[in-house]
Amino acid sequence: MSSAEFSSNPDNFCYRHPDRQSFALCQRCGRTICGECQTQAPVGVICPECMREQQKAMPRVARAARPRGASMALVRDTRPLVTYWIMAITAVTYITQLIPGSPVQQWFALNSALLIPSIGFEPWRLFTVLLVHGSFWHMGLNMLALYLIGRSLEPLLGRWRFLALYLISGLGGSVAVALLAPGTWVVGASGAIFGLFGALLVIGRHIGANVTGIAIIIGINFALPFIFGIIGGSLAAIAISWQAHLGGFIVGAALGFIFARTRALRQQRLQQGLLVGVTIVLLALLVIPATLYV
Q1: What is the DSSP letter of 39?
Q2: Which of the two residues, 126 and 226, has the higher pLDDT score?
Q3: Second-level CATH architecture of 81-293
Q4: What is the pLDDT of residue 69?
Q5: What mean pLDDT comes out for the span 76-92?
Q6: Dihedral through CA 194, CA 198, CA 147, CA 109, nearest 10?
Q7: CA angle, corner 116, sides to 110 and 120, nearest 5?
Q8: Element at 231 (helix H, strand E)
Q9: Per annotation, catalytic residue among 22, 169, 190, 241
C-alpha cells in the first residue's frame, strides 16, 4: 500500500480523532482507535462506545461498586506503560550488578557456547542479555532511546505488540551475535533498541511520515562501531556489538512490515502466526553456530 493510499483510507486513523494514525483496533467492533480512546480489555483494547455498551450490560451492583470516574481514567490512559516497565526492570537489574560480588551479569550475559546442551544449555540468556549492561552510560543511553521511541511507538502499536516487538527484536540481536560472533560475551539491550528503530522506520515510511531524521540516526549508530574500529586499528577491539545492532534492526524492520500489512481485525490471527513464525525461524538459526562446537 502506498503512502497516498494509506492516508486516504479512514480505517488507518482513529474514528474519533481523524488526524491521529493508529494500528490499534477495538477488539469488539474492529474500529481504529488512538491511545486516548483505548480501554484495556482482558484481550486487546476496546473503544469508548463499546465500553459504554459493556457498562450498560453490567449488573447494577457491579457498577455501583466501581469508583466513580474509573472508566474515564482507563479511557484516557495513554501512558506507554510497557516502555516504563522495561526501563524500570532494566534499571533495577543494573543496580544489582553494582553490588560487590554480584553474579547477575555472569548469569544473564550472552555467550553462544552456553546455548549448546553438551556445553551448558542456558537458553534464557537470549533474552536476559537485554537486562545487563557494561556501564551506567551503556544502560542510560539505551534506556533513553527506549523512552524516546517507546512513547510514540507503543501507543501506535498497542502494548502487547510493542512488547512482542521489543522481545523478538532482542532475540534477533542475540541470534545474530551467535551467528556472526560465536563464543563472544555480550551484554546490553542494543539489539532490541535497534529493532524499535527498524520498526519505526518501516512503519513511518508506510504511513507517509518523514523518516529522514530516523534514517540518519540509524546510520550514525551503525557507523559508530566501524569508526571506532578504524581508530583502534581493528574491529576485534570494538566494545560495541554491531552484530546485535544488525540482527535487531533486520528483525524489527520485518516485524514493522508485518504490523503494517496485517492491521485489519480479520488479519489478527495471521499477524500472530507470523510473529510466532519469525520467532521459530530465529531459534532454528541457532543450529548453525551450534555445529561449531560439535
Answers
A1: E
A2: 126
A3: Up-down Bundle (1.20)
A4: 46
A5: 88
A6: -20
A7: 75
A8: helix 212-232
A9: 190
**Cα 279 to chain centroid, rounded:** 13
Backbone angles phi, psi at 40, to 5 degrees: -65, 130
Three cell numbers, residue 178: 551467535
Residue 3 is among the residues annotated as catalytic for this protein: no
Q: What is the pTM of this model?
A: 0.74
Instruction: Check residue 103 and report its DSSP letter.
Output: -
Active site residue 190: yes
Other beta carbons within 10 angstroms of residue 31's beta carbon come to 19
Which three cell numbers, joined as nine digits, stand for 30? 474492529
- Spatial distance between the Cα atoms of 247 and 176, rounded to a whole number of angstroms: 5
Residues 6 or more apart whose CB falls under 8 angstroms from that of 211 comprise 200, 201, 204, 205
H or E stretch covering 237: none
C-alpha cell at 78: 495513554
Which residues of the chain form CATH 1.20.1540.10? 81-293
CA distance 289 to 87: 31
| 66-71: average pLDDT | 47
Confidence of residue 7 (pLDDT cuts 50, 70, 90): low
